[in-house]
Design brief:
The complex is a heterodimer of chains A (about 325) and B (about 375). Chain A is an alpha/beta fold and about 325 residues long. Chain A is built from 11 helices and 14 strands. Chain A has 2 domains: about 180 residues, 3-Layer(aba) Sandwich (Rossmann fold), CATH 3.40.50; about 130 residues, Rossmann fold (3-Layer(aba) Sandwich). Chain B has 12 helices and 8 strands. A 6-stranded parallel sheet of chain B has the order 2-1-3-4-8-7. In chain B, strands 5-6 form a two-stranded antiparallel sheet. The longest helix of chain B is centred in the first third of the chain and has 26 residues. The chains are: A alpha/beta (about 325), B alpha/beta (about 375). Chains A and B meet through α3 and α4 of A and β2, α6 and α7 of B.
Amino acid sequence: MPTLTIRDALNEALREEIIRDDNVFIMGEEVAEYDGAYKVTRGLWKEFGNKRVVDTPITELGFAALGVGAAMAGLRPVIEFMTMNFAVLASDQIINHAAKMSYMSDGQFNIPIVFRGPNGSAYQVSSQHSQAFEAFYANWPGLKVVMPATAADAKGLLKSAIRDDNPVLFLEQERMYGLKDDVPEDDDFTIPLGVADVKREGADCTVVARSMTVPLAMQAAEIAQKDLDVSVEVIDPRTIKPLDIDTIVESVKKTNRLVIAEESHAFASVGAEISHQVMENAFDYLDAPVFRISTAEAPMPYAKNLEELALPSVEKIIEGIKTVSYI
Amino acid sequence: MAKTTIPKTKKSTKRPARKNGAKVSATRNDDGSDKFDPVAAQAEYLKRKESQLESIKSTDADLLKEMLYQMVLGRVFEQKCAEVYRIGKIGGFCHLYIGQEAIAVGSQMALRETDYVITSYRDHVQAMVQGIEPEAVMAELYGKAGGNVGGKGGSMHMFSKEKNFFGGHGIVGGQIGIGTGMAYAQKYRGDDDVTLCFFGEAAVNQGIFHESLNMAQLWQIPCIYICENNRYGMGTSQSRAMSTRNIAKKAESYGVANEFVDGMDVMAVREATLRAIERGRKHSLPTLLEMRAYRFMGHSMSDPGKYRTTEEIKNFQTRDPIELFHESLAEAGIITEEEFEEIEARAKQKTQEAVEFSENSPLPDEAELFTGIYKD
């Protein structure tokens, strides 16, 4: 099985889906001649040309809307935002239009579209370039939200997202594009949306992590095992909406302890939702209050030390494991 | 229904001259202002009729009669909407089209069946001209199961995939970008179909208008942007909202072909649309048509209308697009008075049937709350 970076796994997924379906095209800022701001689309324009790989002006609302209209008319656009921060300009089209079109038209017009790009923090890019938007989009019926954390998941989930008949927010993470792991070599390798993955099995404490916090949780789990003799189960929901709450609840019923690690701010976050659903479904199984690690309740600062202080970390997750384990 | 093949037009395919006089409203000033002058209005009315009579000669008589019927049906239907809204049969917002009928009828009836249409929340008449049955439109307004979208959309959200009607959209200007994408898909597939994308003049102040026109010309997208300038964005007149009011000219900033059209003259609308269609089909180019009309009713049914005078409304009503077209067809010998009465009776009958259908249609089943959110 070849080892790929998340960047190259995404690139393979795009390439294979462009070949598979004539209606798939990718559109966004610098996706073509420049090879992608983060090189996710590297080589695709040279291989497929202007029709399938389309550079846009800096006009996020405009090309998002164009994508929605093209999807209504039967195409399968993949709209890349250079970062999800810029997608806020397009959120009128994503939330007011794409999310509602199927419902408002009583199922006549569905929107098979993927809105993708890096979500969350990078390295010292400050307040306007470091935001995590999953809760914002997950709030709306009609949208699906996907957040891969490994190369294999990135490839399999992106292929599923492109083949899905609904609008999908596919949230990547700039810090993670270079992470490597094994990816199955199969043009039809897909991972279904809405299915969580147990990244590490454990017996004493469940950590639910997504995107950037998955590798952090894996490290924390190793340390907890070694230093604290606590066996940690790490669960990555992979799809935020629809959320596979059953896998999380089953784990909590086994471990009786839950830590949630997320990169977004805490208030009204996906972690808050998971916490609520676990309370509804496994209240009697919890031996400690759910512990949550989120980004600090402040806009992201530039200074390196402050940025580190704001973000989740291995140490913070270990603290969470200790707290729920009463260590 | 309401679909025709495109007759060959004798007009030039090049950018039409906006200043040739014949198709440009006499009331249009360069700054877009529109002070009402009764003497000028009468002269304009006669000039408009003269122009209509000329166009009528080269158009199929059955098509002309169908156009008149669709305009009358649109008027009668919307009057009925106002009536039943007032007695609580319709909830929420209800934006009526009265006064603007020439625009939907003149432009949409110049399309062929494979072309696409999208519009704003003022969408009842566009939906019906596109072929959605009045029964389904009225039942949607009633929030009934027999409605066009089963009671999920209401007044602002009519849709028909079968009739290529891509909806009624409630966010001002949102559909301008979507229409651009629909036409992008037509070009992507290699069809020579076009998209008609309607919006009001107030939407021109939204960023999406400018983003869309830029993309459309940059990528040569065959979208026909029809700006229905009814002079008011809700209660704010165009002169209070737009620094430069010549909307057609704004298209020139993006290199988009444009034309100022008398939106009270259904034949002028038709001919301008045919020119734009040809530009779209043959050259895959966009066009912006600014169609000047007047909204005889309030913005919505809840509009108290304090921002304009009764006199202003009455003045504009003297230029009623339906009366004008009726007179022109009569003078040209296309219809008799009996035939016009028959058209009116048929429209009233159809509207009455729509009301009866809606009254008798059941409420949506409660299970419908959760259907259609996602496609499996």
